[in-house]
Target: Adenosine 5'-phosphosulfate reductase
Amino acid sequence: MSTLTRAGTRRSEEELRALALEGAALDDTDAVAVAKWAAETFPGTLAVACSMAEGVLPHLVSQHAPGVDVLFLETGYHFADTLGTRARVADELDVTVVDVLPELTVAEQDAKYGPRLHDRDPALCCAMRKMEPLARTLGGYEAWVTGVRRDEAPTRTHTPLVTFDEKHGLVKVNPLVTWSLDDVTDYAIEHGVPVNLLLSDGYPSIGCEPCTRRVAPGEDPRAGRWSGLSKTECGIHT
Ligand code: SF4
Model:
């Protein structure tokens, strides 16, 4: 059954799957063309996911989709610098930042499950504070754009450019799949895009504060995420 979006009726799954195939045939080295295609193909029904490490993806997409919704998973556990970057992205870019909120506040979660659930059961904490809110929110869109890059982690080596996201039931567009971290940094400098200061302070991958530590020079950039645990992904992109 179709869901109503701001632009009207959401297209059928069959139509969205066909559009995903169309997008998959694009040149995966041309992020600008991919962002333009996404903006033109999903007018008013496109969302951009952003962790606020920097505002590169919101900037790139907003060039073709002014005012585009930028989804920020507001877990309640972010670094102050991440919240500062969120504020700058909202103020300086032509986007609409949408805080995607969990059902429970941190205080309510602490009361129900005990404090520091992230230390005892990070999978449950991520499920409640990231995955469920994101899934609920994506139901109102036809496509979402993420900044996943193939060079970020072994789990991301085969990330497709455009695909039908089976887990969330919409098209997923990854314009930066072939980019390196240097490419992201170069784009941010060239376009004066807000950048989270933590990136240059030993945090090449930024998540919630309790689950992110500094990494040493030369260390795997994602080694600071859920350090000491087997967990390497929150589950959103896997
Ligand atoms: S990253 Fe940590 S604090 Fe954030 S939602 Fe996941 S387990 Fe909870």
Remarks:
- The chain has eight helices and eight strands.
- Residues 1-5 have pLDDT under 50 and may be disordered.
- The pocket of iron/sulfur cluster is lined by residues 75, 77, 118, 122, 125-126, 129-130, 207-208, 210-211, 234 (CB under 6 Å).
- The first strand starts at residue 4 and ends at 5.
